[in-house]
Write a structure and sequence with these properties.
alpha+beta; Glutathione S-transferase Yfyf (Class Pi), Chain A, domain 2; about 10% strand; Glutaredoxin; 2 domains
Length: about 200
């Protein structure tokens, strides 16, 4: 059977979600690295697979493409302990994943992007996104109050989704020392079987 093919960027938290879930589920991936700054070749490389031209884009072993990081990991985790069977808990997973894409990724990831690539952001953007990112972290801190993990007190794809960019928030200048619930949760996620760092393919 052919391995799944992942169009990937090693610095991307969204791509990391897919690599992490595959590592934890023992799924083989064939990685194809794409540049996150120079995107000029994307129409020819993944234009037929993902109209948004974004990574991650996953091609299943039967040739079908799948886009959007949270959709990909939910598909891969279906039928495993990483995705709850209970409809209410599955809806709560989605709620946290929507929060991640609306509040975490647009703020923590964007600030980190400008920082790690040394790019000049439009005036006021970093300050605005940093403030919004702190508010998102405050919400996550409240969501983790008296909880080991986000859903039903067990590790799930909800944790994977939030962990991806929160655990590298310091690369964007975010200080997590004021978020003890978040810091403790990050440590618990990193202790899960099959865990790999974002730097590992």
């Amino acid at each position: 059977m052919l391995a799944m093919r992942l169009y990937n960027s090693m610095v991307s938290g969204n791509c990391y979600k897919v690599r992490l879930v595959c590592a934890q589920l023992g799924l083989d991936l064939e990685l194809h690295e794409l540049d996150v700054v120079d995107r000029s070749n994307r129409p020819e490389v993944i234009g037929a697979l993902n109209p948004a031209l974004r990574v991650p884009t996953l091609v299943l072993d039967d040739g079908r493409p799948l886009a959007e990081s949270n959709a990909i990991i939910d598909f891969l985790a279906d039928g495993t302990p990483l995705l709850p069977d209970d409809p209410y808990d599955r809806a709560r997973v989605l709620a946290w994943q929507f929060f991640e894409q609306y509040e975490i990724e647009p703020n923590l990831a964007v600030v980190r992007f400008y920082a790690i690539f040394g790019l000049t952001a439009p005036p006021g953007l970093v300050e605005a996104r940093t403030s919004a990112g702190v508010r998102a972290l405050q919400a996550l801190e409240r969501g983790l109050d008296d909880r080991r993990f986000l859903i039903a007190d067990r590790y799930s794809v909800a944790d994977v989704s939030l962990y991806a960019y929160v655990h590298v928030a310091g690369e964007g200048g975010f200080d997590l020392t004021g978020f003890p619930n978040v810091e403790a949760w990050l440590a618990r996620v990193a202790e899960q079987p099959g865990h790999i760092p974002i730097t590992q393919a």
